[in-house]
Design goal:
The complex is a heterotrimer of chains A (about 325), B (about 260) and C (about 290). Chain A has about 325 residues and is α+β, with helices and mostly antiparallel strands. Chain A has 11 helices and 12 strands. Chain B is built from 7 helices and 14 strands. Classes of the chains: A alpha+beta (about 325), B alpha/beta (about 260), C alpha/beta (about 290). Chains in contact: A-B, A-C. The interface between A and C is large, with 42 and 40 residues.
Chain lengths: ~325, ~260, ~290
């Protein structure tokens, strides 16, 4: 059953949420839009295409302390980081909600990541359906859609008089303010997206694992971390301890398989030495290893990497190339 | 407690603080734990003791980076962190009734030590045991205090070798692969378990295959840079296998089918 | 698009590949948006047909030569990029006889990003004095006398006038996610192990936070003092729009004033901080 919230209703609602919870919403930062905790509802950019970084940074922050080490008279205590307050991520598109669900597959699988699990269970997702598809979007080819309510607690769809409020989960139901009228109007047609050829990318990845394609593609790759960091589903991290003025913290930070020292051991053993092997790792993780463990391909079609890659390594092109090469190999 | 095994390798004995965890902490040869030197970081180490050993958990730590150095600098009584046990283990029950050839180079002997000791604990379940232990120099041979026990065990042969001898050394001076070739163990009803530096493994494998060992008769334990040890950070994978969960113990047959090669 | 220029590049590339003079040609091709350009490596003569050159060819391709050491490669080079070649020749990172330089007389490139192509000439092009590359083996394009604006470093003057600079820059660095794209794209950043990756000594560490980011950014800038050739790639590739050109251009301006030196103009002249002469100017800040 759909409800209708006017723009004013929505602002009041977000304001009341802000009293008790952290609200993470799209905010205009210079020329870009980023998900950030807000202090006032006025900070929210309701009108935006897509954010530069995904909202995964709320659940897996670029940097966080996992625990601190306290020493009292020779007794060592590990004090875990606390999740202080409940939160709401507002304004995320269906692709990003799916991205969080994919990250859940790994982080919530037993033994689950305690900090992620805590924050995840105490955060509600109020999503926003997409009014338009951007040139880089291909969510419909990757299991999502501009109006897909899956993995959210509430989905809002903008209409002339405000927003259609679609409650998806019990958690969402508890958040909806009282007094909203039922929505009896039409639900807008979602924008159409260009489909990239859907195919068995997992088996194509396996079949082309040793193909010279990867070295060629990696020629122009800079092996920076941009694609992994803007991606809603990349989640590799590094962990190190830091001592600062007697305080010892175990810190977890973003890292990606493209980093130079990613798999380098202290003894000097480096398994991936060529650019092609390094670049291939990202695609094989997304298209092959992740689905083999967790069923779904780890890409939601948000297109952020397409937009952000400084040398235009386009994941849609890679998927399409893999299909073409597979067809050529099988002689079809 | 720490014992200096070689100039750069120390054996750390760790007693778990919580008595309940200490009593219930069970593991098998081949598994590893992540040791934390608080303030420095964490790294994976094979557990080289056997469960219920009086000295607690033992780890052989080679000084090679910041974490290993910090672990070696710990004094008796200091606290470190232990997470584990992780990974799979050597399926020693499957090797019962077979001849076992253990081939270790340098610190590679560490994960093989509990295998040897478990076999010696249940000696009658196994046939001939050949241990080839190599190192760069005589000082670098690991577990020297256990050599007498290993030598004296029934149907057990310990062959030592070094790349470079010294004035006192009267033993063999040869590379491990050449020793394998010289001793020419038979592949009949045999399992070869091998661990050491990559180059030693590569050449030893060639010799074993020449002797007729099939890839499913050769077992090794792989290392990788690890952070979580639980299959979360996706860093330790070799192809589709996570060393921390699917390994670290693999047969050569399994490894040959990996998408990436270690 | 100047089809004549493009054909010259294609013909030369094809020729070099057919004769085996080079193992590959590093140039540009059309990107997946059908609008802008991206780096392209041609290894077969037929692939030369994919090469293009237009005002969206903003990338500095010289960095890629460092991945191809030991192989003879041809490379399409704009005047600004040729300064990077001179820098790397001077610092002995590439050998002159291993590079065949296809120089392009470039009228300037525009502001672009994926699927977005403006008509605005990049700021660095407006003040560029070079009508053709400083070093090349083969020149394409008509050499047109440039009507360059004078370099007044007005952006630096503006930045210096910001009221609370500390706050401004910490806020900029606060957005940095340490993707290191700036380092990876920069032809001057080629240390086998970057200081930021080192644990001993620990300069930066892995924490991604404003103070650590500040150390990263300022140290990188200082490592480029007197070496930055002003290609502006760092600012272009930054996913969170940090105005990195301000940092590098500030030091470029200072080095020009203090040492009368600009990087990459002469492969024989080493950057000031890489040289020591007995008659050095030593009386700073006395």
């Amino acid at each position: 059953m759909n409800l209708l919230a006017s723009k004013d209703d929505l602002i009041r609602w977000l304001d009341s949420l802000l009293q008790e919870r952290i609200v993470i919403a799209p905010v205009r930062v210079q020329e870009q839009t980023m998900f950030q905790p807000i202090s006032k509802v006025e900070e929210i950019a309701f009108d935006f295409d897509n954010t530069t970084l995904s909202p995964k940074g709320w659940f897996l922050p670029p940097t966080e302390a996992l625990f601190t080490v306290q020493r009292d008279d020779g007794q060592v205590n590990l004090v875990p980081a606390l999740v202080e307050r409940d939160a709401v991520v507002f304004g995320l598109h269906p692709c990003d909600a799916r991205g969080i669900a994919l990250m859940d597959s790994s982080f919530l699988q037993e033994p689950s990541d305690a900090l992620y699990r805590e924050r995840r269970s105490r955060t509600a997702l109020i999503g926003l359906a997409c009014r338009q598809a951007l040139p880089e979007c291909f969510c419909t080819s990757m299991g999502s859609a501009p109006d897909d309510p899956s993995h959210m607690d509430i989905l809002l769809t903008e209409v002339k008089d405000g927003y259609i409020v679609q409650v998806v989960t019990e958690k969402g139901k508890a958040l909806v303010p009282k007094g909203l009228a039922k929505y009896k109007g039409k639900v807008p047609t979602p924008p159409k997206l260009q489909a990239i050829p859907t195919m068995e990318v997992t088996s194509a990845m396996r079949g082309l694992f040793n193909d010279p394609y990867w070295e060629r593609l990696a020629d122009r790759c800079l092996h920076c971390n941009v694609c992994a960091y803007v991606c809603p589903t990349c989640y590799c991290f590094d962990v190190r301890d830091y001592s600062d003025k007697g305080k010892v913290e175990r810190v977890r930070s973003w890292e990606s398989c493209q980093s130079p020292g990613f798999s380098l051991t202290a003894g000097g053993y480096a398994p991936r030495t060529t650019k092609g092997e390094r670049l291939r790792q990202r695609f094989s993780h997304k298209f092959l290893y992740f689905p083999e463990r967790f069923r779904d391909v780890a890409c939601v079609g948000c297109g952020r990497c397409v937009k952000a890659c400084p040398v235009n390594i386009d994941i849609r092109e890679v998927i399409s190339d893999l299909q073409q090469l597979t067809e050529v190999k099988s002689g079809s | 407690m720490a014992i200096q095994l070689t100039p750069d390798i120390k054996l750390l004995s760790v007693e778990l603080e919580d008595p309940d965890i200490r009593a219930s902490f069970d593991y098998k040869p081949g598994q590893f734990a992540l040791l934390s030197a608080f303030g420095e970081g964490e790294a994976p180490f094979g557990i080289v003791s056997l469960p219920q050993q009086r000295d607690g958990l033992e780890f052989a730590v080679r000084r090679i980076g910041t974490v290993t150095r910090a672990l070696q600098e710990l004094e008796p009584g200091d606290t470190l962190g232990v997470r584990g046990p992780f990974g799979n283990w050597f399926p020693l029950e499957d090797y019962e009734g077979k001849n076992i050839i253990i081939i270790g180079g340098g610190i590679g002997m560490a994960p093989l030590r509990p295998v040897i000791n478990r076999i010696l604990e249940r000696r009658d379940n196994y046939q001939e045991l050949l241990i080839i232990n190599g190192a760069r120099t005589p000082q670098d041979l690991v577990f020297q205090s256990e050599f007498p026990t290993w030598t004296k065990a029934p149907r057990t042969r310990l062959e030592l070798t070094v790349d470079r001898g010294d004035e006192q050394w009267k033993g063999r001076v040869a590379l491990v692969p050449d020793v394998v070739k010289e001793l020419a163990p038979s592949p009949d009803n045999a399992i070869a378990i091998i661990c050491g530096p990559p180059i030693m493994i590569r050449f030893t494998l060639a010799k074993l295959r020449n002797l007729g060992f099939k890839d499913n008769q050769i077992v090794t334990t792989l290392e990788a840079k690890m952070k979580c040890g639980l299959g979360k950070c996706a860093r330790c994978n070799i192809g589709e296998k996570y060393v921390c969960q699917d390994g670290p113990v693999f047969t050569l047959e399994q490894i040959s089918q990996f998408l990436e090669q270690p | 698009m100047d089809m004549e220029l493009i054909q010259q590049i294609r013909d030369k590339a094809r020729n070099l590949l057919e004769e085996g003079t080079v193992e590959g040609v590093i140039g540009y091709e059309r990107a997946s948006d059908g609008l802008t350009a991206r780096p392209f490596f041609a290894y077969e003569p037929a692939a030369a047909e994919r090469l293009i050159f237009d005002e969206t060819c903003i990338h500095d391709l010289v960095k890629y030569l460092l991945d191809k050491k030991g192989k003879k490669m041809a490379i399409v080079v704009k005047p600004c990029d040729s300064r990077a070649i001179n820098l790397l020749l001077n610092e002995e990172q590439i050998k002159r006889d291993k590079v065949f330089i296809i120089g392009v007389s470039c009228p300037g490139v525009v502001e672009t990003s994926w699927n977005r192509r403006s008509e605005t000439l990049q700021a660095r092009c407006r003040t560029c004095q070079l009508s053709k590359p400083l070093v090349y083996d083969f020149l394409v394009g008509r050499e047109v006398a440039r009507q360059a604006e004078e370099e007044t470093y007005s952006d630096i003057t503006e930045a210096k006038a910001i009221a609370n600079k500390e706050e401004f820059w910490l806020e900029q660095f606060g957005r940095c996610i340490r993707c290191y794209a700036c380092r990876q794209v920069c032809p001057g950043c080629y240390c086998p192990v970057c200081f930021a990756e080192r644990l001993e000594p620990l300069w930066v560490g892995i924490r991604i936070a404003p103070e650590e980011n500040r150390v990263w950014q300022t140290m990188r800038t200082f490592h480029l003092a007197g070496r930055c050739i002003g290609c502006n790639e760092c600012e272009r590739v930054c996913p969170v729009d940090i105005p990195l050109s301000l940092l590098n251009r500030k030091l470029e301006k200072d080095v020009k004033e203090l040492f009368a030196f600009q990087a990459g103009l002469d492969p024989e002249e080493s950057p000031p901080f890489a040289t020591f002469k007995k008659d050095e100017k030593l009386e700073f800040g006395a």
